[in-house]
């Protein structure tokens, strides 16, 4: 728009300057040689009448005529330039005023969404992230900027909501072992005649509650690390990490089958081993007696793939996505010893390594989880 306004104003200035210059210079053209000879002849006749010799009169008249022509041309040029400068400045001033007025009006209309963005940014806070611009109009750069700002506010709102929910769930989970410890101590202290067996029982319950709190804190720290710490870029192989995770694992209630092919990746070996360990823990914990766990690693079209499938109870297909949210379990709280953080940690670690997790419910029962990570170039 500004380029168009400049071109129009410049064009007007050029046209006005052209016609002014043509008007001041005239359209009759220069004097012809016939006119010059006539003027010189008339001058010689006047000089002869005064007794001046013909040769001297001719030279003097010719010189006088040439000087006159030169002076006239100089005067005409000065006048034309003065007029051109005057009218050009007046025209330029008027065009500038008009361009400024038009630019002010058009810029105000164009930049109105920017003012809306500024107002939305000022009103946005941790407690109020629900405002959206919802800008209408043509799909231009400002519309794209407004849509990006709305998307950013939506992500921030979801992040803060998830954070508050996470803090509430973590506080609730940590309160459980503390309540157990407090109850055990209060019960024993309330007895008038405590026995060593009472103290041993209390100590055992307190120790179990402490271990439960320790496991929860460890899971929370792992989740926080995977969410906020930049991953280590070590050359690794998912097959080797899976072998390490399987070593020493003995679950008599389930049968583990492995098919580990090369799957080179780059990342943090400790976190990736935790990812695989959590998937195996989840597959064993929520399995059925005599069930089966299958783990495999491979590569597929430039992607390293980790695949874990387990038997178990039937999982509703519409509930699979919830399993990867923190503190989410399908069954009741007391049925299993987990905190609902295992798969959330898996998702967080995969995301930190620029990968993603897909899960599907097995029709006969159990869960089918696939982790895809960028393959390391060899």
Could you describe the 3D structure shown?
- It contains nine helices and seven strands, in the order ααααααβαββαββαββ.
- With 378 residues, it is α+β, with helices and mostly antiparallel strands.
- Helix 7 (238-246) crosses helix 8 (269-285).
- The protein starts with a helix and ends with a strand.
- Mean pLDDT is 79; it is low at 27-32.
In short:
With 378 residues, the chain is an alpha+beta fold. Helices cover 61% and strands 12% of the residues.
How are the SSEs placed, and which strands pair?
Elements: H1 2-25, H2 33-49, H3 54-110, H4 112-123, H5 141-190, H6 196-228, E1 234-237, H7 238-246, E2 254-260, E3 264-267, H8 269-285, E4 291-300, E5 303-310, H9 342-352, E6 356-361, E7 367-374
Parallel strand pairs: 2-4
Antiparallel strand pairs: 1-3, 4-5, 5-7, 6-7
Keywords:
7 strands, alpha+beta, two-stranded antiparallel sheet, 378 residues, five-stranded mixed β-sheet
Helix content range: 55-70%
Instruction: Describe the largest sheet.
Output: 5 strands, mixed
Based on CA inertia axes, which overall geometry fits? Answer: elongated
Overall residue-averaged pLDDT value: 79
Q: Structural class from helices and strands?
A: alpha+beta
């Amino acid at each position: 728009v500004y380029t168009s306004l400049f071109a129009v104003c410049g064009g007007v200035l050029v046209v006005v300057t052209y016609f002014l210059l043509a008007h001041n210079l005239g359209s009759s053209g220069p004097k012809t040689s016939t006119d010059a000879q006539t003027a010189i002849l008339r001058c010689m006749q006047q000089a002869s009448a005064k007794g001046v010799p013909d040769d001297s009169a001719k030279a003097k008249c010719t010189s006088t005529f040439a000087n006159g022509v030169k002076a006239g041309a100089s005067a005409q040029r000065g006048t034309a330039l003065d007029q051109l400068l005057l009218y050009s400045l007046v025209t330029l001033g008027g065009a500038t005023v008009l361009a400024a007025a038009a630019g002010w009006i058009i810029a105000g209309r164009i930049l109105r969404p920017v003012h809306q963005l500024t107002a939305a940014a000022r009103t946005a806070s941790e407690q109020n992230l629900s405002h959206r611009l919802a800008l209408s109009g043509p799909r231009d750069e400002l519309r794209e900027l407004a849509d990006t700002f709305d998307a950013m506010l939506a992500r921030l709102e979801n992040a803060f909501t998830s954070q508050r929910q996470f803090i509430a769930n973590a506080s609730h989970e940590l309160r459980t072992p503390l309540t157990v410890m407090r109850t055990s101590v209060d019960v024993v202290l309330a007895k008038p005649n405590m026995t060593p067996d009472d103290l041993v029982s209390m100590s055992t319950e307190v120790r179990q509650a402490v271990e439960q709190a320790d496991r929860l804190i460890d899971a929370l720290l792992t989740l926080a690390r995977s969410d906020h710490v930049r991953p280590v870029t070590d050359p690794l192989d998912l097959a080797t990490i899976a072998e390490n995770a399987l070593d020493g694992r003995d679950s008599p209630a389930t049968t583990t089958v492995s098919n580990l092919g090369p799957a080179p990746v780059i990342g943090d070996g400790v976190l990736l081993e935790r990812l695989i360990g959590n998937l195996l823990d989840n597959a064993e914990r929520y399995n059925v007696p005599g069930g089966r766990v299958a783990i495999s690693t491979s590569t597929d079209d430039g992607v390293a793939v980790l695949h874990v499938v387990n038997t178990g109870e039937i999982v509703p297909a519409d509930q699979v996505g919830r399993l990867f949210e923190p503190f989410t379990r399908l069954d009741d709280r007391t049925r299993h010893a987990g905190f609902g953080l295992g798969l959330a940690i898996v998702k967080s670690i995969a995301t930190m390594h620029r990968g993603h997790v897909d899960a599907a419910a097995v029709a006969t029962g159990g869960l089918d989880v696939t982790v895809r990570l960028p393959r390391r170039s060899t």
